[in-house]
Design brief:
disordered N terminus, 341 residues, alpha/beta, globular, Rossmann fold, Dihydrodipicolinate Reductase, domain 2, 9 helices, 9-stranded mixed beta sheet, single chain, 15 strands, 6-stranded parallel beta sheet
């Protein structure tokens, strides 16, 4: 995307709640790169930290609290990268102050918590920050599946893992919404729902917890979408870094190399194979130009704010994903299938 602002676009002025790594490393640079966005203010409970981040990141205003960002009359939209247990509180506060909200995933700790955000005020845009859904190749993949490029989708398999070894990281604290399912399983759940284009009926999960921190560090799940359609995934914050996505239909299969965190500044691919026999594999790669998916995400969000047509997933989608996570945790406790309700 071009970083040249045009006179026909009034950039959305953003406020950022906190100086989290995801904001500093990804979202703020993406806002600077997008002609639809303008990072306007950043807040922290430590004013010196806010001022330092604002200076280093080219943000004109720094505030000494998150509430001060929400009260800034020039801020139109806020980005919330706070620990998971604070998402609902600040998203609700922001909407009540007339701000649009892009909130990091997962949007809440439970589906019941997410329901607190269900009554989005008229004219306000609320979204959950799953940047991968804004990758051009993900958009194309969903289009091909809807067009039955590989027949009826029958199975989706995903793997996403890395080693979390930062002792002070909130993801190691259960009361803050830590653990592999909230950090990575939300992606895997969203992905299977995105590709099947419907909701699972029931789930089964095996969950392993860290004996010291009590957060889940590894989870393997099966999601039953009915009519012979199954998804499975493994996520972990205690394994080697790896990622995988495989989709199998009635007449072909699709692989997405580096599906969740594509290589920076590199082209990406969809690999389609319509072989009818195992010894006749004939992969057909489709190549996509490099695309910064965080920039795609904030651009699409800003375009929706400005009344343009762009990919957007509202609070109903976020609540539906939380229902799956609720069922996964319940299954991990009970050892049985759990309905997604």
């Amino acid at each position: 995307m071009s970083n040249t602002r045009t006179r026909t676009i009034k950039p959305v002025r953003w406020g950022i709640l906190g100086t989290a790594n995801i904001a500093v490393d990804q979202l703020i640079p993406a806002m600077h790169a997008s002609p639809w966005c303008e990072p306007w203010a950043i807040g922290s409970r430590d004013l010196d930290k806010a001022r330092r981040c604002a200076r280093e990141m080219g943000i004109p205003h720094a505030h000494d609290s998150y509430a001060a960002v929400l009260d800034d009359p020039e801020v139109e939209a806020v980005y919330i990268p706070l620990p998971n247990h604070l998402h609902v509180e600040y998203a609700r506060m922001a909407m009540d102050r007339g701000k649009h909200v892009l909130c990091e995933k997962p949007i809440a700790m439970t589906a019941a918590e997410a329901e607190v955000l269900a009554d989005v005020p008229q004219g306000i845009v609320l979204g959950e920050a799953f940047m991968v859904r804004h990758q051009p190749r993900w958009v194309e993949l969903r289009k091909q599946l809807r067009d039955q490029a590989i027949g009826e989708v029958r199975a989706v398999q995903a793997l996403l893992s890395f080693t979390l070894d930062s002792p002070g990281d909130f993801r190691l604290r259960r009361e803050y919404g830590g653990g592999a399912i909230f950090d990575l399983g939300c992606y895997a759940s969203m992905t299977t729902r995105y590709l099947f284009d419907t909701e699972p009926q029931r789930v089964m999960a095996l969950i392993e917890r860290d004996p010291e921190h009590e957060v889940d560090i590894r989870a393997t799940a099966i999601l039953d979408y009915g009519q012979g359609r199954h998804a499975s995934f493994t996520v972990s914050t205690a394994m080697a870094a790896t990622q995988h996505l495989h989709v199998v239909g009635s007449t072909g299969a699709i692989d997405l190399p580096f599906p969740f965190a594509p290589q920076q500044n590199a082209s990406s691919t969809i690999i389609v194979d319509r072989a009818r026999a195992l010894n006749q594999c004939a992969p057909e790669p489709q190549t996509f130009a490099p695309a910064a998916h965080y920039e795609c995400e904030v651009t699409n969000f800003a375009r929706v704010i400005r009344g343009e047509s762009a990919p957007h997933f509202d609070i109903r989608d976020a609540i539906a994903n939380m229902r799956v996570l609720d069922a996964l945790f319940a299954s991990g406790e009970s050892g049985t299938w759990q309905p997604v309700t």
